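To: structure desk
From: M.T.
Subject: fold request, one chain
Message: Could you run this one when you get a chance? Sequence is below, nothing fancy, just the single chain.
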Amino acid sequence: MLSHVFIGVGDFDRALAFYRALMPVLGIRERFCDPQQPWAGWQSQPHPRPLLLIGKPYDGRPHEAGNGQMVALLAADRVSVDRAHAVALAHGGRCEGPPGLRPQYHAHYYGAYFRDTEGNKLCVACHEPPA
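Reply: Done. Structure tokens follow.
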């Protein structure tokens, strides 16, 4: 369904350090990084799409985190949700909701919410029952 998601950042180096710490927890590898643009991208395996990209806004104006916008990343299990949340907070993220069940979404929805170093809201979610 998705080709790619682009997340705007103001401080590319700070955001890059955050995403370089977070994405491996979810098994998502870095595909490229071009500090001259600046932008970087990660992709799931085995397919080349969707991509998650970070970079400075194309129009050259300052980055602003969107109200009501959120990117949700898929975790294979609940332990990965817990680890991703901890890594995010350890690398400058802000908690927006600790890891836990959210039965209002569905019986096995286990998620955590946080803001990246640029104020963008992210979620890491697992939709599977415990192992």
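Reply (cont.): Residues 78-90 form the longest helix (13 residues). Let me know if you need anything else for the meeting.
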